[in-house]
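Practice set, problem 2.
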Amino acid sequence: MAGGAAALIFGTGSIWFILRRKRKKANQVDGNIFDGEFQNGMGPRKFSLAQIAKVTTNFKGEKLGVGGFGAVFRGYLRDLDTDVAVKRISKASKQGIKEYASEVKIISRLRHKNLVKLIGKSLLNWDVRFKIVHGLASALFYLHEEGDHCILHRDIKASNIMLDSGFNAKLGDFGLARLVDHAKGSQTTHLAGTMGYMAPECVLSGKASKEADVYSFGVVALEIACGRRSIEPTYEESRASLVAWVWDLFGNRQLLGAADPKLSIDFDAKEMECLLIVGLWCVHPDPKSRPSIRKTIQVLNFEAPLPKLPSARPTPTYGVPVGCGIQASDPCFSTPTITIPR
């Protein structure tokens, strides 16, 4: 867990510095943004800009990605001998300090081997891919079922999953996450998420739920199995939508034709079939027909039978309201138009 904790505290370090810089302009926000957690020693550790700049080569080293808050850089924490991910807020950030603080406060509560970002690079073989799906499912089960509160992630997508040196999946980016009571399991809030991964009912209602997280998990599972993104506008129309394409292959009894061609035939056919069917189950248009993450894990472990799915993808009955602007791979907040991701 050293790497996970380090990734968190360095992300927090950049937040703390930015809050200090903005104190003169927004003291009323800075004063209570972490509810005194820094002051009483219960929250994440503070780092100076000089310390953070040192481990990231003054933010000129490897850039791991760019999100709604800004860029994420790779760093190295010498005293723990571990790589870390450092998130830095940009001036053009589409999200605010409160959302960033929410991410830090939620991550501070978490202790699980498959949570918080790390990095790994390679063309992944089948065993590693199946392991990643299991790791992501385990992380989601912890968020939904094992804590004092249910945590709805609300932005599960491929770019929020990174790998450590052992190819263990790490789910990160909790900027949109919400705490809810286990008995409730959902929360009505402003629309947030990433197109291509958002459950259809969320686009209509903005309601965050376990079922919506499961839908996003299903999209990622299909991406891992098929080796392509959820939306590919350059593909022919019948293949542009990953979910629709895989469901068509399933209905035509050609499901294994969805397998990533880069794998050639070097995969376990039973596991591939299982993953593809579980992915379709999770992205069922009707949230009541989706499995819980607990049931998903049981099927992935071959502890429960595969579900029986309709041969044709059920038609979604949810409309898309005017008033949500979404860019490819960016979090969604209410603005005038909808844009299909790249």
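Problem 2, part (b): a different protein.
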Amino acid sequence: MKVYLMYKDHNFDFQQKLPWNEQILIQDLELNTLFNAMALGDKFLFEVAKKAVLSGLNSSLDTILYRQDILRDCFKNSFIVRNIYNIAVESIEREKKHYFGIFSKYPEYILDRSIEVLQMFMEMLKKLKTIADEHADKFESEGFTAFFTMLKEELDDEFFDSVQNHLKELKFDEGILISAELGKGNKGINYTLRKPKTKKQSWIERFFIPKTPIYSFQIHSRDESGARALSELKERGINLVANALAQSNDHILGFFNVLRTELAFYIGCLNLYEQLSQIGEPVCFPLPVASYERKSSFKGLYDVSLALTMKQKIVDNDLNADNKDLVIITGANQGGKSTFLRSIGLAQLMMQCGMFVPAEYFCANICDGLFTHYKRKEDATMKSGKLDEELSRMRDIVEHITPNSIVLFNESFAATNEREGSEIARQIICALLEKGIKIFFVTHLYEFAHSFCEKKMKNVIFLRAERQNDGKRTFKIIEGEPLQTSFGEDLYNRIFGTDKLTRC
């Protein structure tokens, strides 16, 4: 039985390796806020959300659209999807209660335990089959359609009747029929469990048909050695069937584990959607395009982590940066530039793993890798200077980056003077652009930003954090060329007052 709710042709690998910069992305984009909202305190949901979101950078365009269609079905049938998930969780938890303990080496105990577990699994599979029979027509996605079709075809009445008949026979109410051969030294070999004869005979046939001679013996109730030998003989006979039944249980358990894992991603999406709906924030299904295209346009994009933290609607932004390779963002201090940058990174990851995005409209090309280069606090150990540390992290990015990747820079290379920092940034950005890498760069380095502005490059767009005449920040990012000031005096006046600035 196959699930295939994350990919068309294979199951989701929960053990897959995540990007080398996993922890950096989590820190810079505040991804734990997103994962916690999806998990709602459930550790398993948290891990699945983390794996699915960060591994989305490997997703193809077809996989993204495949998951989007499944997620649309989840929105329309959330109660049914949660019910299926709960069945998978209950099956796994109930199986754990039937533990082997110290008797795991005894075939008879393995067989009895396997029969109990398989009976429980049949009960849970019947629940899935009932859901498929009653609700399959409510789902339209390719993934769910294939899933319910599989349940209907493989879990028909004949299957359940066959399993119940086999389980009834394996209880050996009428004794165990075992055949064996004599080997060297007259030792028994080739012990085989035989199916008992079930042919029904009339009383006339039973009376007149000649019977095969039977040779039998009985073990005395006090014959401990004989009883032990008989017990060993029985275990040899049922050993193979006990192991086969245990393997069948493992197969069904594996199915429920995969079902739980793959549905956990969509349950996390539902949890996130419900929280954003309560806040009043919109979401949409993004329009992904091939990696070689240059698309980056959106309307009403907001930082989902900030919205979840503040639990209220926050300022959103619009942008049309199609056919642009470089987006340079300047403007007033504390004007919303870093939040804007983070919203882009979050939306890109959410789109590529097949989720909805926090916007009214979002279209972007998929990328082969997402990298962040954010400013860090001063090294407390003083083992290296701040600029050295920035260049070291940049080297790590260069060693892993590939064409059609995205890099988010946040006030990078500002640890030295304006002229030197601008030249370092300019050379690095030019090299990345030559390799077909898309860049979003938040900076206060005017010389750096102005140098690109003077070139009038068609693949570069300039944005600026909006500031009103009275110094108020709107937290809107608008199109505009870089200015020579970041209006740091606004912050000084806000903290100390204008009169103190005058006296200085």
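Answer key, part (b): The mean pLDDT is 87. The two ends are 77 Å apart (CA to CA).
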